[in-house]
Every structure is written in structure tokens, then in C-alpha cells.
Amino acid sequence: MQLSAKLKLQRVDYVQVASLKCNSIQLLSSKGVKHQQKVVVGDQRGILQLISIKKGEPFVDFKVDLKSPVNCVTILVNSNEPTKEIIVTATQQTVQGFSANKGKLIFKMDTNLVEPIQHLWMASKEELVVSNSYVYNHYHDGKEANYFLSTDRINAVAVLPLNKVPSLTPLLGCQDGNIYSLRDSSLRHRLPIDAGIPTAIQLFQNDGGTSGEWVIYGTSLGQIGLVRWSRAGPTVQWVIQLPSQTTVTSLDFYDFSGSDAGAQLIVGREDCYVDVYQVPSEDDATHISPTLIFSQNCNDSIAAVRGGIIGTDGFPEILVATQRGWIFGLTSCESTIRRKQPDEVTAARTNAHGSERRKQLQYLKSEVEFLEKQFTEAQNNKSRASLPASLMEKETTTSAQVNVMAKMNFVGLENAYYITVESQVSINFILVQCDANVQLVDVERNLAILSVVDSQKNGPSRLTATFRCQSNTTRLEMKLICAERNTSDQVRLYISPSIQEPRLAFLKSFRLGCLCNHVRCHSPESFQWSASTPSSSLTLRGGFSQADAHNWIVSCLPNVPEKVPADEEIHFYFRNDQWHSKLAVQYRRGEIVFLSDNVVALSHVRDFISKEATTKSIQLTMNAEVTWEATEILLHHVHPLLLDMIHRRQRNALALALKEAATDQLALSDGDADWMTAEFRDIVQADKENQPSNNHQYTTVEQYQNFLLDLFASHREFHGELEVRSSHKFSLLANMLADTAVRTEAFIELFRSDDSSTVV
Amino acid sequence: MLTLVNITELNLSVFSGRLTICKFHDGADAEITSSCVGATSANKVFIRHASPVQQDQIQYLNIDQNITALCSHPEHPAAVVLGTTSHLLIYDIAENKTVMSKEIENGVGAVVIGSFDDSDQINVIVGGNCFLQCFNMEGSERYWNVMSDQVSALALIDFDGDGHNHLLAGTEDGNLRLFRNGRMTTEIKETDAVTFLIALTDHCFGYALANGTVGVYHKRNRLWRVKNQIVALASFDVDNDGHPELICGWSHGRFDARHWQTGEVVFKEKLDAQHSIVALLVDDWLQMGHAQLIICSQLGQVWSYLPSDLELTSLDRIKDENATQAEEEAIRRLIIRKQNLLAELEHIRHHAEHATVAETVDDEVQLTVKHDQENVLLELEGGGLIHAVIIFAEGLFPNGESHALHLCPPSSSAKVSLPVQRNLAVDLHVNILLESHSSNDILKVVEVVHPLPTFSRFKSVPWPSRTKNPSALHFRVRIRLQERIQRIGFWIAQNFIVSPELLASESSIELAFEVLPCGTPLRISFLNEGSFLIESDRLDHVSDLIQHLATFFNVQQLASDIEISENQFKELTELMEGVRGHQAIRQRLTVDMADQVNEVRNWFNESENARLMNDMSEMRRSYAAIQSGNRQLVDLQNIRDSNYSELMDRLKQINLHVQNSSSCRVGKYQTDVIQASRQAIRAEDFEQLIKITLHGVDN
């Protein structure tokens, strides 16, 4: 990549602690310009520590055991005494402040939240904002001032700077894909995000810009946007899409160049990358877009990134914390750069550095040997007497923790679920199991041996597979492709880390609802059924409670909050990007209404809910209104795509033959391709251009064909026909689908024939 | 530690294993130029000249047969060795003449050329459809041998340290066989089709399998292996330490060098774009005085690398940098190791402190693991539930290295069926996930190692009753083995799962088996006089047994006599006679197709004439005729294809028969049978062939 040449950073490893969250690391301000900054880390085991790097080695200034996971760490700077910083932490429901030099407890405050605090903001001793998964709380002078209950999970919280925007304006990034701003205890503005769910919000240039109204957000689908959140409401300035649809976990600004261009944007991504973007200043924000100047794969999901001077005086650096608990730097202090300047001072430093490194190596070696001995002893005795607890206290800056993290994300582009497994210690094996008919695809960068058990011999479990990992594998990815169907299933992962005595396996399970390929989207404005294309609808009535209905919806569709919303009538909206279909659901006690142009989806939810209701012995009456128009629009959309795909497949095959013929011709004449018609030349050219990316598309032709057949079957079934799949017309359609010569109109004609009544 | 020295474009698609480098003396001034030589997808060989004079010039050779293997000649640098579906061809490109051409009826799957064993002469070995064949440069056959499956990789390696190279062959059923002087000395079983074999230093060789495993053997012991999903393999000394590293090329454009002894990655690089690597070569094709590592992508881009140390200008700098890098890498590894150890210690301590209650309960839980040959049975007593069972065993399972069973709902006993398909002594690592008392999301893992004997899939059944005459099995193999019955009993007890009562008799052992998974019957009877009779419906089971017996008792020479049922005899005769029929059809089809091609050509000329004459109706007629002619050609080709694959199948069956029957003998008797069978096959004397394979060669 030529772009990354603009910024050269080199990785330096520091320490490993227990697992980290996106707010569990902060930097203290430095004692002087370009001086080293100290690192504050609070990990999920409850250890808060202040680390400074001396000669490349971490040194613990103090360490406090807070007993319960540290979810947030922030630094409180007292404006009167800027040198006396206070480290503020959030553990469970408690906010505590520690002095930055000795780690002395300065204040402690118990909030009245029920769940642990997830987000923390503190501008001064008076103003405190905390939030947990659903509740936002503002304390003024230790008293609760404002309160807000969100319907969806709160993923990110930012507060506009009080010195520029005097009225307290908190921004909440919520799971429903909106960023909300609050005024006191009520909603004020709403910014719907079109790609994904907001997962990180950061003030522009870390201070909100000159007006303090500029914020930057990152989403779960790799989108980053700049918003001006003025008093009148939010306006988006620019939006960029990262190369992969991955979660943005952390955003920070830091000025690497020292020029006037302003600070650069550092992006931490869940797919292990740290990116740096050169962003335009506020004035240019509308017409200049950001450029990527650095990108590096760090082999671990990133939890947090912070720009600062950490390892060496004078060299800017990105401090990276991974979710597994590794803390390392990406430093501009590069050994080769120094060597290229043959002035004596740096040369001497290089040498010193070299010998330092050798010393460190020696030290580490002896340490590891010692630990190995300890370990074998402990294993033999298996009693706690042999374990010198004092050693751990004295020697170690930190230590890892046996813990496993797993995540499942839907990637719409590929219509697949990505599962990422990360472990603090290396993984021995993983067992993947699912009762649904899913396809498991190995990801190439994995270093594990995948064995899939033949599903026919293995009872109800449709997928049983194992990954046997090589030593030192701590991260593993896999891809699941799952069609929508009429059951809701669990994917189970049993992850066994390679530790002895006692050996464990962690169970992580995820739900694949029956409409798992839908994504939740925004609300009515963007989502209206026009009068000319009435959607099909399915109404279910019966003696069920709102909670029952909510549970069914949760099992069917992704990203619905587990908690039952407080409203009397609940609305959710979804879309399926593969078929470009939409689905709306509204329900209350005793009634659920689905509206969709996709009859297949309606048929799946009908099957699923009636089955669920039967097990609970709830009587349901169903009423379906299936319109031909909606289905026709869907057909007009999907069938050409199918044709296009088959066509492309044929062109690829033809390209091979043409290229061979071309080599024949080259052998005879001087290599011009004039003998080919323009069409053929295009085919060869197109083939040359997109050769590597074509492979994964091959499976989807069958998906499209199956979908169209499903559509036909569902459509007919809703019209009361029985055994559609064994009918003559069904097989006729199936044959027609494989034929590229069939035009969409002809297909639709056949699809529709004998189908005079539009509404039953 | 490698530096990129050159990038070129071939502008041609390259296929895995079908690219090499030839050198030409350029006219009188004797300057050597190198060219890339590779196969195209349609029966052609391209020569892409790299010399400045002939730059961008591509020369083609028409071969008219599907090219399956290609390599360069060590003594004639301008010659190329080609293997096709029916021929072996050594062709001098510079002189434009055929050095050697040989018909290989079975088709070539892999080819290697060089001097090996005790001879100094260059020989060429081809491997294909269950056979190996060795020719000298005059084209006369030196020897012939049978293999258990299609030969997919060949290499010449000094694996025993006697200073001579020997032949190493890998097959699609995952066998690695080492040959000395035409005789197999060692067989190693791997888990999937062997795709690459490459000689390294110090009697080591690297291998790659179709499932993506890469590893290194030292003599017959495996040093290491990793899963890598690689598509090309080479050996090249990256760090100039005198020992070549194993270079692995990945399909997504990455390549790395691994240390031959440890498998550690010492160097890795990703090519700048989405290029799929298909070939790795080592040659001094840029005339730089040191061989380059040449990496070629599917679309024909070629990268050449040299070890950095050779760039003298910056030698010190790079060395220093390497040392720094190595140190930093070492530090990182040590930190990881330290963290892992700390975590484990912490883990132990944590459990020592907190899990005392749970431990005491767990101690009462008794787990028994049994194996009834088809299933692994697990029984938990004293409470507790099994959630899942995972069995790891390399080389045992058809799809991968493990077999798993998930129990829903969890139960206290489990039955895991074992689809064993090979005769292999292996340890089953049975991992059982048990419900834990503390939490729903954390399960206990118990690992039990359960050994399986070599012939675990031979299921002991009661001997057929005497009153009912047991139906005769297809093959009855008789051998004489001068061993005491106790020793035979010992062999059986060690390698089979049988109850000891069956071995109690002093005078004879009679055992009946069903071989899983098909339940093929097999009977062994041994009388104290040393006469051994093995009956079975399948000869390969018998030959496996005899080979194992011979190794166990260290028998150097063993003759045997095979009796065959009438049915089977008929089948064999039919099989062999069928070959003649297929060959006849094939010839006729070839003639037909040639005729048809001529006809189409004539129609084409006529259509051109008609076009020039502006005779549209005539032209239309000709085009219609061309179309129907073309259709017929396609049909003929399809018939020819199916005929060819059927023929190949039959030849494979015959080779397998020779392989199995020769393996019922040991030592001289075995080689004699192979030699004699070869003679008979060549003479197409099938009666003789059957006689030889059944009764051996009379001396």
C-alpha cells in the first residue's frame, strides 16, 4: 500500500492484562511537551494500575485491586491545579476517584443504578454522567439531576464540552441505529445512522472543534461519520466506509505531524486493524474527504486506541489495547530510522537500546524458566501450598486471565455471519454445533485444522465441526451461511483453551432466528408502502400476552432488545438486502401484524409462531392478505439478478475458451485480438479484471433459484393451495429458472398464470 | 531477509506444477539466457524468453495431448520433460528435436528426472495410475512398480544418508513410499492426497497434502507439521545458513519460509495485490550468480527474490537489522510464554482455592471408555452429564482429524460411531465435555487416551459352524511361517481386538472376522506346523495382514499361494479382456474423429467459397453442416472421454490386483511377481498374468 507510507509506525509490545473494554485505558497528560505519558489501565478482573514505560519496559507505579470489573476509566483534570489529575473509575454501580500519583482513594460514590455502569463522563467534581446498558443518569453535585430510560441498549456515550456548549448535551449511540441527544431528562434530537449501529462516539479533535459541536461516530458496519450537532439538530458533514464491514470499537485524535493541519483520526477496529486518517479541518469538512495514511493488522480485536507519547520521549505513538488485554504501542520511533542518521548521539542510544534489549531477553528467559518450574511443581502437587502467591504480587506487572470471548456479526455484503473467537490464553480446540442446516466456511487466515462431521450420521445436529488449533492460536474466525427457514436455532461453540488442570470448555451460544438474514432498520419515514404497491400482510390474533409476542419476535428476528419495550403497541422494521424486501411488525397484547412484500418471510414467521403457540397451547387465528403486486415487484427485482448471475457464470466459462483461442492466435500472428468481436473482447477483459473475487458467488445462484421457488410455493400456499411443491407447475418453474433464455416477463407470466384472484 | 530483485509479466496463465525454466545458449557468444516454460490449458507448451534480444517473444509448441506434468532436464538445460495423458516426452527446444518419447498407457501423473540410487546416469521416473516406471535416457525401461493409488508427487531425496538420492513417491490415498533400487523400503501413511514433495537438507524432506497440511520428515520421523492451505512448495536458503528453508506459497498471495527443523516462520511476505501463487521455482534465471526464488502467480506475474545478505552494499545494516528483529521476535515470544504460564498458574491457584466443593463431587464421577470396534462407548457413573464428545486421531477419519458428537439433551452415556477406514495403530484422544457444577457456560473437559490396535476394524465373529459348510470366500492365501503358535497368538493379541479365549489352543488358531465398515468376511487359521491360511473376499485386506506379519516377525522372504474362487477368476479375466476391447474402440474413435475433423474443414472451405461467390443459400447449408459436424465431434469426444476413463479404471484395477497379490509375498518373491506381471502385461498375456499373480513365479 502506497498510502500507508505516509505514516510509519512500528509495533512495540508492553504488557498483557485481563480483558479490556473500550473505555478501560487512558493516558495521563505529560509533564512537559513531548514527554512520556503514563498509562492508566483498569481491566475486567478489577485491577486498576498506572504503568509507565521505562527503557521499553513497563513499570507499575501503583496497582489497586477494585475486586469487580473496571468498565470505565477517565481522567479528571482540576482546572485550578492542572498537575493534580484524578483517575476516575466505574466498577459495578460505584464511581471512585484516585489520585494520579499514588493511587490514593479521593472520593467514592454509589449510584442507584441496578446494572453495572458501562459509560462514564466527568467534567468536574460537580458534573457526572453515568449510564449502564439502558439507563442514563446525570448527577449534579452528587445528586441525581436527570434520568433517561432507553428502549434499546446504549452502546456509546459522549457529552459535548461544557466550556463551549454550556447546557449539558449528552449523545447516546443506541442499538436501534440512532444517536440521540438529550436535554435534561428527555430526547431532543435523533440522528438515524444508515449503515449499522453506532458503537463509538468521539468529540472531533477530542474537543468538539471550535464550537464544540462537532462529533465523530463509528458504526458496527465500518462506517465513520462527522456530525455537527448544533442546537438546531445534527447535520452530517462527511461519511466514510472502512474497507471491511466491521465494528469500529474506538476513535481518537492525535497530532502526529505537529503541523497546522490538525490532529489525525485513529480508528480501532474489531477485525484487528488500526487505521489512521488525515481528516480535513472543520472549514473543509464538507468538500474534502479524509484520506487513509496508515493501516496495520494487529492480530487481535482492538478495544481502544489512544494517541500520545508513551515509549520514548519525543516520539508520537498510538497506544493500542486489545480486547484480550494486550497493551502495545505503534510508535514512530523506528530503529531503522535512527540508524540512518549517523549522528553520534542517536548511535549511542541505539547501542544502549540494543544491550538493553539483550538484558531484557536474558531476564525474560530466566523468568520463563522459573515459571515453568513453578508450573510443573504446581501440576504435580495440585495443592495450594506449593503456590507462592507472593511471587505473583512482587514480580508481575500484570497477568492474563483464562477467559474466552466470542462474537457473531452479520455481514450483509456476503450474507454471512462471521464468528470471531478470542481467548486470553491459546485455544486448544473448538467444537461448533448447530441444529439448523448451515454452511460453515473456514477463513483462510486461520491456523487451525477444520474437520466437519458427516451430518447424516450424527442425529439431529446438522452441523458438528471441530477446529483443532495449533499452538499459540488465540484468535479464530469462521463464517456461517444460513438460509432463512421456519425454525429458530442456536449455534453453540465449545471453546477449550489449552490449559491443564482443570481443563475447561467455554460454551458460547448465538441465536439464528428464522429470518436471520434480515437487518433491523429505521422507522416509518424511510419505510412507507406506497399506495400502488400494497404489501402482503399476516395478522395473528389470539390469547397471548405482549411478552409472549415479544419473545416470538426476538426469536425470529435479529437485533431486537430482549427487554419488552414499555409502549402499548410496539413497532419494528427490518429489511433483507439480498432480496431487497422489507418487513414491518407491530404487535400488542393479542395481536401481531406483519407487513412485507416478501411472502416467503411471512410464511416462515407464520410456521414458527404457530408452532411456538401450539407448545404453549395458545389458540391463534391467522389472517393473510397476499397481494400479487408486492410479489411481482420482488420478482422483477430478483429474477434479473439470477439471470445476470447465470449469465456471468457462462461468460466466465466462455472467457476461458476465448483466452485459449487467443493464445492460439498469438502463436500465429503478432498478438492483436482483432479477430474477436467486441463482445468477446469485453468478456476476456472483464475476466482479467475480476478473476480472484468470483469464487464465492457460485453458491448464490442456487440460493436465488431456491428463493424464487420458495416464493412461488409460499404465494400459492397463502392462497390456500396444497402440496404446491409436488405440483406440475412447480417443476415447470424449476426448469425455467436454469434457463437464461427465459426473460423475466415470461417467468412472471408463468408464475402468475391461473392466478386471477389477487386477494383471498 | 529476501529482497525483491525483479518483477516480470508472462501475460499467460500458469498452472500449478506445470512451469519450469530452461536455458539456451544464445548463438556463438555462448551467453546463456533463461526462459520460462509452461503448459497452457489447451495442449500447448509456451516458452517465454527472457533475454533482451527476444524480449516479449512467446514461442509455442503444440503437443496435442493434455499435459499433466512438466520439468526441466538437468543435463540438457534447453530440454523439457513432458508428461501427458498417454506419453512421456523429452524435447530439446533449442534444437527442436525429440530426445526421447515413450508411450505411457496409464497416463503420467507426476514426473521426476535425475540420477539416483547407485547409478550415475540420468533416469526419468514417471508415476501415474497406480504405477511407477523408470526409464534411462535411451528410453528403455529400468523398472516398473505398482502403487496403491494415483501417484501425485515424486522427488529424489537422500533419505538414508548413503550419499545417493533415492526415489520418494506420494499417492492420492496419502501414502509416502521410499524406494531403493526399485524396491520399496519404507511406507509412511499420511492423512490426505500428497500434493508436493521437496528435498531439503540433511536427509529431510518437506511434504504438502491436499488438506493443507505442510510438514517435514527426517528420514521416517516427522519433525513438524502445520496446517497452512498452501498451493506451492519449494526449498530455498533464505538466511544463508547453508540449510534451505521450506518455502510455502499460499493461494491468497502470501508466501513464507519455515525453518526445516522446527517449522518456525523465519520470513514471510505478501505480494502487493490479490495474486494467487501457483508455482515456486528456484533457479538463477536472471544470471545473477546466485539462484533466485521465483514466485509465479496464476495470471503470470513473476517475482524474483534474492537473499538480502547478498546485497553487499548494505550487508552490515541488514545483518544488524535482522539481529534486532530476531531479538524483538524472541522477546515477544517469551512475553507470550510468560503470560500463558502466569495465566495457568493463576488458574490452578484459583481452582485450588475455590473449587474444593466441586472437586469432591467430581471425584465420585466414574468415567469408563470402551470400544466395541464400531463405536466408542462412554459411561458416566455417579451423576453428571455428557454434553459433547470429540475424538482426535490423525489419519483415521475420512474428513479431517476429528470426529465429534453433540448430545442434546446431555446424557450420562454416549455412543460415538467410529468410521475407521484404514488399518492404522493410533491413539484416540477422547475429549469429553462434562456439565460443570459452577456455571452453565463453563464445562469440564476430560481427556482420555484410548489406543486402537492396527487391525481395529477387524471385528471378531464366531467361526462358522462346522456342520454348515462355510461358504468359500473369494481368495484363499496360503503361506508358511516358521513361528511358534504362542508368538502368533502374541501378534494377534497385540494387533487385533479378540478375546483371549480364542487364542488359548495349543495346536491351532482359528479366527473369523468381519472387516468394517462393509463387514467383509475374513478368516485366519494357523496350524502349529507353520501353515497359515487367510481367506477373504478382498485381497487388499490379506496383503495388509501379510505385510504386517512380515514386519512383525522380521521375515525377509515369504512366498505364498493364492487360490481364487471361480467367480472371481471370471471377473479378473473379464477385467483384463475388457482392456483390449477398450483399446480397440479407442483407436476406432480416433480415426472417426480425424475423419470428422476433415469433413468439418471441408465444409468450412465450402462455406468460405460460397460466401465469396455470394451464394447465400449454399453458405447457409454449409454452416448448418458445420454445426452438425461440430455436434458430432462433441459427441465423439464425450464417448472417447468416457471410454478413456473406463480404460483407466480397468488399468488401475489390474495394477491394484498386481499390487495386492505381490504384497501377499515378501522380499524376492514380491519383486519377482511384479517383474513377471509387468512382462505379462506388456505381452498382453492375461492368462499368464493371472497365473503369476496367484501362484507366484516358479524358479
Automatic annotation (TrEMBL), chain A:
Domain of life: Eukaryota
Residue stretches making up the BBS7 GAE domain: 404-509
Pfam families: BBS7_GAE, BBS7_hp, BBS7_pf, Beta-prop_BBS7
Gene Ontology BP terms: cilium assembly; intracellular protein localization
Domain BBS7 helical hairpin: 634-751
Family matches, as InterPro entries: BBS7_GAE_dom, BBS7_hairpin, BBS7_pf_dom, Beta-prop_BBS7, WD40/YVTN_repeat-like_dom_sf, WD40_repeat_dom_sf
Protein name: Uncharacterized protein
Organism: Daphnia galeata
From TrEMBL, chain B:
Keyword Cytoplasm: yes
InterPro entries the record matches: Bardet-Biedl_syndrome_2_prot, BBS2_GAE_dom, BBS2_hp_dom, BBS2_Mid, BBS2_N, BBS2_pf_dom, WD40/YVTN_repeat-like_dom_sf, WD40_repeat_dom_sf
Domain named Ciliary BBSome complex subunit 2 middle region: residues: 153-258
Pfam families: BBS2_GAE, BBS2_hp, BBS2_Mid, BBS2_N, BBS2_pf
Domain BBS2 hairpin: 568-662
Keywords: Cell projection, Cilium, Cytoplasm, Cytoskeleton
Gene3D superfamilies: YVTN repeat-like/Quinoprotein amine dehydrogenase (2.130.10.10)
Subcellular location: Cell projection, Cilium; Cytoplasm, Cytoskeleton
Biological process annotations from GO: non-motile cilium assembly
One of the record's GO cellular component terms: membrane
Domain BBS2 GAE: 375-455
Keyword Repeat: no
Residue ranges annotated for the BBS2 platform domain, each copy included: 475-553
Domain Ciliary BBSome complex subunit 2 N-terminal as annotated: residue spans: 34-114
This protein's name: Bardet-Biedl syndrome 2 protein homolog
Species per Swiss-Prot/TrEMBL record: Daphnia galeata
Phylogenetic lineage: Eukaryota, Metazoa, Ecdysozoa, Arthropoda, Crustacea
